[in-house]
C-alpha cells in the first residue's frame, strides 16, 4: 500500500468512526422509565401552590401540623453519638453493627423466642427495609430458588425487587373488595396450589396497602397451609409497633411461625417506627433449624452484601442500637411510638365519624377496622383523579390513603371531598 493509499484508508476509517459516533449512542435504546407512582405523587404535591393541599399519598408519619416528626428519643441518641469522642467514620463490618443486628433480631423474635434461646438466629444490617427485602431475595435466588408469591395487592416495590433478583414472581389473593377485608379463602387456596417449596412473602402487621391483617386464628390457617406445602415464609415487617402501638403485638405473627418451628427470613425497617426514613436503617433477620447453620447463611449473605453495597452505613444503626440497648431510651421510644400509632388510630375514628355524619353513601367501617398507616378506601381511579385535580388531595390511584397525612385541621375538608366524589363521580 502506498503512503497515499494508506492516508486515504485512515481518513475513511476516521470519517466512518466519526459517523458512528454522531449517529448512535450507547444509550440509544434506553427508553424513559415511568416515574415511581408514589414518589411522583410527592413531586406533584410539592409543585402544587394551593395552600390547603393535602398529601395522603406518601407513607411517612406527619404530626398534627402535617410536619415530619423527629422523635425526641432519636434527637437524644443523635446528640450522644455526636459527643462520643470514641466514635469514628471507619467502615462497619459487611454485616453491619452487631449490637444493632442482635437487638433488632431480638426485637422482632422476642427475647424468649426459641430461636434466640437456642442461638439459631442472625441479623445482617441492610439499607433499610427495601435493602433487607432485596438481600433476602438475592439470597433465596442463589441458595433456595423457587417461585415467589406476593400478596395482591402489595407494596409496589415487591414486584420489582423479587423480579430484579431473578425470581419468578406470582401473586396470592389478599384483598376481597366485597367485604373490604381479607380474601382468606383465595389466599389459602393459592398457598395450597403453589408448587411445593415456594416462597411466600407475608406482611406480619399493617399490610401495605390494605391495612388488613389476618387475625391470630387466620394466621394459624396460613401457617398450616404453608407447612403443608413445605413453603418458605419471608416476612416483610416495615411497621413493628407502628400498627397497634405495641411492639410485641405487631410481632405476633412472626413469633407464632418461629414457635411452630419454621425457618424464615424477616426484613425489618426502622423508617416508620423510629422515623429514620432517610437514614436507611434496616435488618434482615434469619431463623434456622439449628445454630450451626447460621454462620453459613450469614457468610453467604455477606458475600452478596459485599458485592452490592460493600458495607452498610453507620449513623442510623448507631441510633437504633442505642435506643434498643438502653432501658431508659427504649422506654421513651415505646411511649413515642404510641403517640404516633394513637394519633393515626384517632384519625381513623374521626374520619369514620365525619363520613357517617355526612351520610356518605357506602359502608365505611373498614376505616376503623383497618390497621397501621394506610386505609384502602375503596375509592376508584376516577374519584382519585377528581380529588387530585379539583380538591388538591393527593393519594395513589388504588384509593390508598396514608392516615398520617390527616390531622384535625384538614380532616373535615378531606371527608367533604370524599363525600362529593362518592356521590358524583
Ligand atoms: C411493606 C413494606 N416493605 C418495605 C418497605 C420499605 O421501606 P424502607 O426501605 O423505607 O425501610 C415499606 C415502605 O413503605 C413497606 O411498606
TrEMBL record:
CDD domains: AAT_like (cd00609). Signal peptide: none annotated. GO terms for cellular component: cytosol. Homodimer. Its EC number is 2.6.1.1. Keywords: Aminotransferase, Pyridoxal phosphate, Transferase. Belongs to the class-I pyridoxal-phosphate-dependent aminotransferase family. Pfam families: Aminotran_1_2. Its cofactor is pyridoxal 5'-phosphate. This is aspartate transaminase. GO terms for biological process: aspartate biosynthetic process.
Amino acid at each position: 500500500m502506498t503512503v497515499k493509499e494508506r492516508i486515504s484508508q485512515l481518513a475513511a476509517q476516521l470519517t466512518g468512526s466519526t459517523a458512528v459516533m454522531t449517529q448512535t449512542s450507547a444509550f440509544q435504546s434506553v427508553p424513559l422509565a415511568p416515574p415511581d407512582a408514589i414518589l411522583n405523587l410527592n413531586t406533584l404535591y410539592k409543585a402544587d401552590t394551593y395552600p390547603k393541599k393535602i398529601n395522603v399519598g406518601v407513607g411517612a408519619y406527619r404530626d398534627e401540623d402535617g410536619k415530619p416528626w423527629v422523635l425526641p428519643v432519636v434527637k437524644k441518641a443523635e446528640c450522644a453519638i455526636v459527643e462520643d469522642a470514641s466514635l469514628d467514620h471507619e467502615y462497619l463490618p459487611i454485616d453491619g453493627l452487631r449490637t444493632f443486628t442482635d437487638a433488632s433480631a431480638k426485637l422482632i423474635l422476642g427475647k424468649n423466642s426459641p430461636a434466640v434461646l437456642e442461638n439459631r438466629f442472625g441479623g445482617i444490617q441492610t439499607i433499610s427495609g427495601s435493602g433487607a427485602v432485596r438481600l433476602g431475595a438475592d439470597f433465596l435466588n442463589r441458595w433456595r430458588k423457587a417461585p415467589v408469591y406476593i400478596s395482591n395487592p402489595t407494596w409496589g416495590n415487591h414486584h420489582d425487587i423479587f423480579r430484579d433478583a431473578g425470581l419468578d414472581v406470582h401473586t396470592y389473593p389478599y384483598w376481597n373488595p366485597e367485604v373490604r377485608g381479607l380474601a382468606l379463602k383465595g389466599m389459602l387456596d393459592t398457598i395450597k396450589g403453589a408448587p411445593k417449596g415456594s416462597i411466600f412473602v407475608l406482611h406480619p402487621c399493617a399490610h401495605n396497602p390494605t391495612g388488613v391483617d389476618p387475625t391470630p386464628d387466620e394466621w394459624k390457617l396460613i401457617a398450616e397451609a404453608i407447612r403443608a406445602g413445605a413453603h418458605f415464609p419471608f416476612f416483610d415487617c416495615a411497621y413493628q409497633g407502628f400498627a397497634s402501638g405495641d411492639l410485641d403485638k405487631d410481632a405476633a405473627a412472626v413469633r407464632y411461625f418461629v414457635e411452630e418451628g419454621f425457618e424464615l427470613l424477616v426484613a425489618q425497617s426502622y423508617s416508620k417506627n423510629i422515623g429514620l426514613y432517610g437514614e436507611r436503617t434496616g435488618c434482615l433477620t434469619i431463623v434456622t433449624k439449628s445454630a450451626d447453620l447460621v454462620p453459613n447463611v450469614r457468610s453467604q449473605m455477606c458475600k452478596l452484601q459485599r458485592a452490592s453495597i460493600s458495607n452498610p452505613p453507620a449513623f442510623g444503626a448507631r441510633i437504633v442500637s442505642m435506643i434498643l440497648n438502653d432501658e431508659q431510651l427504649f422506654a421513651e421510644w415505646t411511649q413515642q411510638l404510641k403517640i404516633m400509632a394513637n394519633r393515626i388510630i384517632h384519625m381513623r375514628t374521626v374520619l369514620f365519624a365525619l363520613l357517617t355524619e355526612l351520610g356518605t353513601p357506602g359502608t365505611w367501617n373498614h376505616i376503623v377496622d383497618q390497621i397501621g398507616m394506610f386505609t384502602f378506601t375503596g375509592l376508584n381511579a376516577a374519584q382519585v383523579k377528581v380529588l387530585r385535580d379539583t380538591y388538591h388531595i393527593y393519594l395513589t390511584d388504588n384509593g390508598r390513603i396514608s392516615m398520617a397525612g390527616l390531622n384535625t385541621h384538614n380532616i373535615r375538608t378531606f371527608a367533604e371531598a370524599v363525600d362529593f366524589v362518592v356521590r358524583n363521580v
